[in-house]
Design a protein that fits this description.
Elements: E1 2-13, E2 16-28, E3 33-37, H1 44-51, E4 59-64, E5 67-68, H2 74-80, E6 84-87, H3 99-109, H4 114-127, H5 143-154, E7 161-165, H6 173-190, E8 193-198, H7 201-207, E9 210-215, E10 218-224, H8 225-229, H9 235-240, E11 255-262, H10 270-278, E12 283-292, E13 295-304, H11 310-319, E14 323-328
Parallel strand pairs: 3-8, 3-9, 6-7, 7-8
Antiparallel strand pairs: 1-2, 1-4, 4-5, 9-10, 11-13, 11-14, 12-13
Helix pairs in contact: 3-4, 3-5, 5-6
């Protein structure tokens, strides 16, 4: 559905060039919720502007359902942009318009007949759970309700892609969960492809099927959620399944192992099997178990004594599908 190929964006500041995007390539399948995560300055805002062609990329291409948007005329681009619905960090509603009137605005711009507009607005109010607030003004709505209006407005022109730019960063945790649940429900009901730009790892964990890590204008890690989490040495895996703190300084000599396993292994007694098979005392230092991307994962930090047969233990764990990282205590 969305294909980004070798996208570059270079800004000029006097005699200096600033590379905001440096060869970004990415594909997102239809009906997928894909998260692009990165810290401030990573290039997320520039990527949003290039995806919608508000900024023309310096080079590379953005394709929507096989059509290259980067080479079309401004007139054609106005039509193409209707296939991309935008949800912003702040809903950016018109204060002088009611909920229904805000949702209707994109339809009015393209000259949709009033009866069709009214029917579409009624449908979207039901989808986002605001039918009772059709005549309310933004000042009468909570932050979460305003964001629901923003989502409904973005869906008004029946887009193929819903592009969400930091959609929950201004919301409290409970409201964030509500909005992410709504985004997933919209995807399931309308089969729309969703791209979420965020700096919040919890958003990725809660809503996304796949994820890309953007850093200094480059995608440094990418894949389906279950795949990136399974890479024990990956930065996304460490961020999505964090362990509290480092190993304590007072532990005795030996080995510290980090274990990462999923699926059936995540509910198996891996630790007790080590004790039975190798006759070693296992001290669990930290652990995390979560359900991500449709798969259950367990991430543990354990300590083994100096007489443990580490190579045999690593071989055994690898044979049963447990990823292992080892360092000396």
């Amino acid at each position: 559905m969305i294909t980004i190929t070798d996208l570059r964006k270079v800004y000029r500041q006097g005699d200096r060039e600033v590379v905001a995007l440096d060869g970004v390539s990415l594909g997102v399948d239809k009906g997928q919720i894909h998260g692009i995560i990165g810290h401030s300055g990573a290039g997320k805002s520039t990527l949003v502007r290039c995806l919608t062609l508000l900024d023309r990329p310096t080079s590379g291409s953005v394709s929507l359902d096989g059509r290259d948007l980067s080479g079309i005329s401004d007139k054609e681009l106005l039509t193409a942009r209707r296939r991309i619905g935008m949800v912003f960090q702040h809903a950016n509603l018109f204060d002088s318009r009611t909920t229904a009137q805000n949702i209707a605005y994109p339809l009015e711009l393209v000259g949709t007949p009033k009866d069709e507009t009214r029917a579409k607005v009624d449908e979207l109010l039901q989808i986002v759970g605001l039918a009772r607030f059709a005549d309310a003004y933004p000042s009468q709505l909570s932050g979460g309700q305003r964001q629901r209006v923003g989502i409904a407005r973005a869906l008004a022109t029946d887009p193929d892609v819903l592009l969400c730019d930091e959609p929950t960063s201004a919301l409290d945790p409970a409201t964030t969960d509500e909005i992410l649940t709504l985004i997933k429900a919209v995807r399931d009901r309308l089969n729309v492809t969703v791209l979420i730009i965020t700096h919040e790892m919890n958003v990725v964990k809660r809503a996304c099927d796949s994820v890309s890590l953007l850093e200094a204008g480059r995608i440094v890690e990418h894949g389906r959620l279950a795949e990136v989490v399974a890479d024990i040495d990956g930065r996304l895996a460490q961020a999505l399944l964090p362990l509290p703190g480092d190993a304590p300084d007072a532990i005795p000599a030996g080995f510290i192992l980090e274990l990462l396993y999923s699926g059936d292994q995540a509910v198996e007694p891996v630790i007790s099997s080590l004790t039975r098979r190798f006759g070693v005392d296992v001290n669990v230092l930290a652990g995390s178990v979560e359900h991500l991307g449709g798969t259950q994962f367990a991430h543990l930090r354990i300590h083994l004594p100096t007489d443990a047969d580490i190579e045999a233990i690593k071989t055994h764990l690898g044979a049963i599908g447990v990823a292992v990282s080892v360092k000396e205590a």
